[in-house]
Design a protein that fits this description.
CATH topology of the largest domain: Rossmann fold
Strand content: 15-25%
Bound molecules: 2'-O-acetyl adenosine-5-diphosphoribose
Largest sheet: 6 strands, parallel
Number of strands: 9
CATH superfamily of the largest domain: TPP-binding domain
Order of helices and strands: HEHHHHHHEHEEEEHEHEEH
Length: 260
């Protein structure tokens, strides 16, 4: 038996898949929601990180300047949370889409590295990466994937503090990431926005950059966001469920060239 809701859902998925299938350039923007089904906490919402912690005490340059060990405690805890976390079917579906769609850019606000772990290759990290550290004084930087760091990590070159390689509130985004995101949003004809509350700038504006160039915007999120009313199609649901269903509809294009 097909219930009314399921029918609408299927139609919306068909419409979204049709847009993706016809697109020459797809750009994706992801947020914390895409990692929620892997067990990584989101930032906002009832159980979000910013409910239990105050961002201004932990995720600003001022916080780090006044109490580096406290800030490191928070980031080392978050790194520990990631130690046993694996990509979920949403990450995997996006990695697979990259291999079957002609041009595909994935912009993420996430710092967990799960897109790369799922096999995505063209990933633009707007907010840095938890598995990256750099010195506050000299040019030293290093990838520390899966490594346990000391409680108070110091630079092996100059002895000053190492800091997490993430972007804090009040800091500029890395120029190369921002430029790459701008190029992708300006050029794409479909923009998929997945698992973000769409409130933190400049990421929150990126779907509008794409819209201004005529792109269709497809949003995947179980909740409505400030972007929803401007999206071309909203797919209300968890990305770990919706993205594989979208991917299923795209597969024939890869398996039988010429059917699209
Ligand atoms: P938020 O925590 O603000 O929003 C997470 C979004 O994911 C919400 O809109 C949820 O409805 C949605 N969501 C929850 N579960 C989901 C699921 N299974 N599938 C799909 N969506 C789901 O996270 P972001 O928008 O990523 O910045 O937050 C943006 C930035 O704010 C972060 O990068 C971080 C934070 O402060 C910095 O740390 C600089």
């Amino acid at each position: 038996m097909v219930r009314q809701g399921e029918l609408v859902d299927e139609q919306l998925l068909d419409q979204a898949a049709d847009r993706l299938r016809r697109a020459e350039h797809v750009c994706v923007l992801t947020g914390a929601g895409v990692s929620a089904e892997s067990g990584v906490p989101t930032f906002r919402g009832a159980h979000g990180l910013w409910k239990g912690f105050r961002a201004e005490q932990l995720a600003t340059p001022e916080a780090f300047a006044s109490d580096p060990p406290l800030v490191w405690k928070f980031y080392n805890w978050r790194r520990e949370l990631l130690a046993d976390v694996r990509p979920n079917p949403g990450h995997t579906a996006l990695a697979r889409m990259e291999t079957i769609l002609p041009r595909f850019d994935l912009i993420t606000q996430n710092v967990d590295g799960l897109h790369q772990a799922a096999g995505s290759r063209n990933v633009i990290e707007l907010h840095g990466n938890l598995w990256h550290v750099r010195c506050v004084a000299c040019s030293y930087q290093r990838q520390v994937v899966g490594e346990k760091l000391p409680a108070e990590p110091r630079c092996p070159h100059c002895g000053d503090w190492l800091r997490p390689g993430v972007v804090w509130f009040g800091e500029l985004l890395p120029t190369d990431a921002l430029d790459a995101a701008r190029r992708a949003t300006d050029a794409c004809d479909v923009m998929l926005v997945v698992g973000t509350s769409a409130v933190v700038q400049p990421a929150a504006l990126m779907a509008d950059w794409a819209r201004q160039h005529g792109a269709a915007v497809i949003e995947i999120n179980p909740e409505a966001t400030p972007l929803s009313s401007r999206a071309t199609i909203c797919l209300p649901g968890a990305s770990g469920q919706v993205l594989p269903r979208l991917l299923d509809r795209l597969q024939p294009r890869a398996d039988s060239p010429g059917t699209g």
